[in-house]
Write a structure and sequence with these properties.
414 residues, alpha/beta, Molybdenum Cofactor Biosythetic Enzyme, Chain A, Molybdopterin biosynthesis moea protein, domain 2, Molybdopterin biosynthesis moeA protein, domain 3, 6-stranded mixed beta sheet, 7 helices, 18% helix, molybdopterin molybdotransferase activity
């Protein structure tokens, strides 16, 4: 589809086609390393992990109470058992529970071999060493069986899997203290442009502060990546080409901002064609149309636009999925669902738009979304105030208040 707001003579590549092209061009990195479990949060497993033990390892109590044998229960009648001792968590009862006896037991403590039931402590009456059980006491309850959670030899975590805090807890519960994970991706990023000034310095006329490198540093923060900030490169063909070639020798991925458009000082595509290869340039997305993807040697390259909101959108929607694939992490689809739009939105057919929205949910569980304000690709303030994207399809035109739209919450991205 031709963008109604563009001078393009041919249809732009859709974002879905661009993602397919990237997926076909990128393959997970090889190489792995052993890490202590405590350092493996967020890393991608390089091999499956199996449990060397049963979890639980012993029969244990599911609550604080008293352990007894079901053969001592007289159905429908109250009964009394003598206290034989205590089983603590970490200090099991060492004796033998005789008929007519019970054991004080705490949550997680080993249940004596002769017992098969635990009653909650609140359900009994204690008088010295005599424990009185009510008539409605249920036997064969409140005991966790050996291997109830995981049996020895069971698969604990598949690969590739990006390890979560829960995964670390599960592996630790099996006594595993080290895992094999995929090596970290080596990523370099830098900004291009004569107009850029470093944060912290006085701003000269005609200059702007370089916000894009700060954005990329945050967007690329991930335990699977080793990220290097290569600073700012001015609009100079020779300097840019030298930086590209040098970085391509030392990194798996280069991400740049600026210089990918069609201005006289936008050299990224030209240099990429000369020293590498361009897979595609320009896609039907707003903001972010002038995006370049290619390769220099074995190093993948993403040339993002210069406007900061376009940097955020293209990085989250295009670069991050590519990096996940390259790192060996499983594919991930961001959660999207329908909400009622409470404000009118301007939209021309031709490109898929990612507008900034403020999402809310009412007491009935219904979702509502409003525009976060001005949608220019240079307006970071409305991006900061928003909590979701309002995703408008290529063929969509203006949205009226009350229309249903698709939203993608920020908190569930990546």
């Amino acid at each position: 589809m031709i963008d109604a707001c563009s001078l393009e003579s041919r249809p732009l590549m859709s974002i879905d086609d661009a993602l397919d092209r990237i997926e076909a061009a990128i393959h997970p990195v090889s190489g792995a390393e052993k890490l202590a479990l405590k350092n493996a949060l967020g890393r991608v497993l390089a091999e499956p992990v199996y449990s060397p033990v049963n979890i639980p390892h012993d029969r244990n109590a599911a609550m604080d109470g008293y352990a007894f044998a079901s053969c001592d229960v007289v159905e429908g009648q109250a009964f009394t058992l003598n206290l034989a001792g205590t089983s603590w968590a970490g200090r099991p009862f060492q004796g033998r529970v005789q008929p007519g006896q019970c054991v004080r037991i705490f949550t997680g403590a080993v249940v004596p071999e002769q017992a098969d039931s635990v009653v909650m402590q609140e359900h009994v009456q204690v008088r010295d060493q005599a424990i009185h059980f009510p008539a409605d006491t249920r036997a064969l309850q409140n005991i966790r069986k050996v291997g109830e959670d995981v049996k020895q030899g069971d698969l604990l975590c598949v690969h590739p899997k990006k390890l979560t805090a829960v995964d670390l807890g599960l592996l630790a519960s099996a006594g595993i203290d080290e895992v094999a994970v995929k090596r970290r991706l080596k990523i370099a990023y830098f900004s291009t442009g004569d107009e850029l000034s470093s944060v912290g310095k006085p701003l000269e006329s005609g200059k702007i502060y370089d916000s894009n490198r700060m954005l990329l540093g945050g967007l690329l923060e991930d335990p699977c990546y080793s990220v290097s900030d290569l600073g700012v490169v001015p609009d100079n063909r020779h300097l840019l080409e030298d930086r590209f070639i040098e970085a391509s020798k030392n990194y798996d991925v280069i991400v740049t901002t600026g210089g990918a458009s069609v201005g006289e000082a936008d050299y990224v595509k030209e240099i990429l064609q000369r020293c590498g290869e361009v897979n595609f340039w320009k896609i039907a997305i707003k903001p972010g149309k002038p995006l370049a993807f290619g390769k220099i040697g074995s190093c993948h390259f993403f040339g993002l636009p210069g406007n900061p909101v376009a940097v955020v959108v293209t990085c989250q929607q295009i670069v991050v999925p590519a990096l996940r694939r390259l790192s060996g992490a499983p594919s991930f689809k961001a959660l999207r669902f329908s909400a009622t739009c409470t404000t009118a939105l301007r939209k021309s057919a031709g490109r898929r738009e990612y507008q900034r929205g403020i999402l809310s949910q009412d007491e009935n569980g219904e979702f509502w979304v409003a525009s976060a304000g001005r949608q220019g690709s240079n307006i970071l303030s409305s991006m900061s105030q928003s909590n979701c994207y309002i995703i408008l399809p290529e063929a969509c035109n203006d949205v009226q208040a009350g229309d249903k739209v698709t939203v993608e919450p920020f908190s569930l991205l990546i």
